[in-house]
Amino acid sequence: DCPSEDLESALFVEWLRTQPVLFSHLPLGQFTRSWKVLARNKKLGVTKGCPDYVVVCPKTVLFVEMKRKKGGRVSPEQEIWIKTLTRVGIPAKVCCGAEAAIVFVKEHL
To answer: 54-82 as b/e, with b when 16 or more CB fall inside 10 Å?
Structure first.
């Protein structure tokens, strides 16, 4: 059994809440069949591939794209976001599981 991405994310958030950081989940990939919601999101700048979490640490801002430990697939848009953020000096990473995300954040605390 491999925990779902949602479960891994919940574990990561539970840990983040005990840390001296400001963070938010960016729910950009939420599925909807509503054309009205899709049009509104597009108009307001929702962009495919933006990482799941932004974490403000004491000396930097991090972006985390959460995936399950096994079987998670990184989209081409997600790869572009991670590479672009990293290229301009913003730490960004695809983390397979809560443990990997926690280690990534701890590196910047």
So the answer is: bbebeeebbbbbbbbeeebeeeeebeebb
Those residues with Cβ within 8 angstroms of residue 8's Cβ, 6 or more apart along the chain or in another chain: 66, 67, 68, 69, 97, 98, 101
Q: What is the pTM (predicted TM-score) of this model?
A: 0.90
Take residue 14 and report the two structure tokens written for it.
Answer: 């539970």
Question: Given the structure tokens 């794209």, which residue do they identify?
Answer: 65
pLDDT tens digits, 14-38: 999 999 999 999 877 666 678 888 7
- Judge contact between 16 and 23, C-beta under 8 A: yes
* Tens digit of each residue's pLDDT (9 = 90 or more) over 68-78: 999 889 999 99
